[in-house]
Design brief:
mainly alpha, MetI-like fold, 11 helices, 82% helix
């Protein structure tokens, strides 16, 4: 078999995974369901099935979304939220991966730090925001810290569990060649743990956006979360739902971007 045949085989395999036996792209079913739900939203409001000032027609929501997009206000709020989420996500990723690998390989540090991590992990995010306001105020430091705290745990847990599944033969082989500990962790343990790390990072990708919006709703003066609260108090449900639609589209886009990067950087996970 030639190299080109191999490439075509991979492409055909990916196409078959995306299509059902009738040759229809499986993603089309998801978009069809979404279209049906939006149509139901429009009809339920226009026909009076749901009589409420807080249930505008979806066409009115889309019109408000386009209006806000042209004005740029919603984009500025969304950009502010994404900046805080990104900073907290990066900090959580570094801390979660490093601590996950180190604690899984070092028994003394594991006994010292793991109980503290297990105590803090079950705490709901809204419960820790009021005490943190007293320590960090209501500026960006609070939102970034809360995002990092919430995103840290799935990354750490997956990394910690992933290190435990590393084939011991790899480690023993590296030790046979007298590989230094740091090099062993970086060149042997870390690559073998990448699938587990990627799973934790993907979970944290959506979680960081949710927590960033939540922190802005509780103690914010800017961002999409604060924008949602403002539009609610201003009795503008069309703008409020428009912001929710932008958040949904942003979350979907982030997930697709992560899947593309994952397929390129961790191809042995078997995802396209």
């Amino acid at each position: 078999m030639s190299a080109m045949d191999g490439v075509e085989g991979v492409r055909d395999s990916r196409r078959s995974r995306r299509s059902d036996p009738n040759g229809v792209d499986r993603r089309a079913y998801g978009f069809l369901l979404l279209a049906v739900l939006l149509l139901f939203w429009e009809v339920s409001s226009r026909a009076g099935w749901i009589v409420s000032a807080y249930w505008p027609p979806v066409s009115q929501v889309f019109a408000a979304a386009i209006e806000q997009l042209a004005g740029g206000e919603i984009l500025l709020a969304l950009a502010s939220t994404l900046r805080r989420a990104a900073i907290g996500y990066v900090a959580a990723s570094v801390a979660g991966i490093v601590l996950g690998i180190v604690l899984a390989r070092n028994l003394m540090l594991r006994y010292a730090l793991l109980p503290l991590i297990e105590i803090v992990r079950p705490m709901p995010t809204p419960a820790v925001i009021p005490p943190l306001i007293l320590l960090l105020g209501v500026d960006d430091a609070l939102k970034i810290f809360v995002v990092a705290l919430a995103s840290f745990f799935p990354i750490f847990s997956n990394t910690f569990a992933g290190v435990a599944t590393v084939d011991d033969t790899l480690i023993q082989t590296a030790r046979t060649f007298r590989t230094p500990t740091v090099r062993l962790l970086v060149q042997v343990v870390f690559p073998a743990t990448l699938p587990a790390i990627a799973a934790g990072l993907r979970t944290a990708t959506s979680l960081c956006l949710v927590v960033a919006v939540l922190s802005e709703m509780i103690a914010g003066s800017s961002g999409i979360g604060y924008y949602l609260v403002e539009t609610q108090y201003a009795m503008r449900p069309d703008l409020m739902y428009a912001a929710v639609l932008y958040l949904a589209a942003t979350g979907y886009a982030l997930n697709r971007i992560f899947l593309v990067l994952e397929a390129r950087l961790v191809p042995w996970m078997g995802r396209s």
